[in-house]
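Example record used in the benchmark description.
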Amino acid sequence: MLIPINNNQISRLIPSVATGGQFKYALGNPRKILQRLIISSIGGVITFLISVSQDRNQTYSLWLLLCVMFFLYILWGPIVEASRKNLKFKQYKFFSIFDGIISDIYQIEKVEETREQTNKYGRLELIENKRSWLVLELEDDDGYLSKISFPMENKHSLLDKGLKIRCIVSSN
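Model output (structure tokens):
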């Protein structure tokens, strides 16, 4: 069953600014954190050196402000990323709450990243990082609706065939 939701209720369900959980998710893996840290520190140091060399002229304050913004990129980067995802989701015209059951559940392997690396003989090898994804087939009183998939985590082991499920569905 689909229960329609109006725009006022959507703005309460999907915030414009990222929540704590969304910040944690957008922060990413250690590699992404390190990448943000490097960008933040290099950009901050370069803009700081430029601001120091300005010798208190008209653009000194601007360069100092840019320096602070670069150093805080490690914090505001994930907030902006998560907020953009929320705004992208809010662009749909119609929202509903789906109330149904899980008709089938299974796992698939998806390639997340591929890279080339040399082996001990100097030959290139293709390295693939795979991740398990959980696929749910949903149905309601009228029958089959759709599939949803997401990365598998330990907490998803509780999901089983026949369980009731409620989720937000969006469409244009």
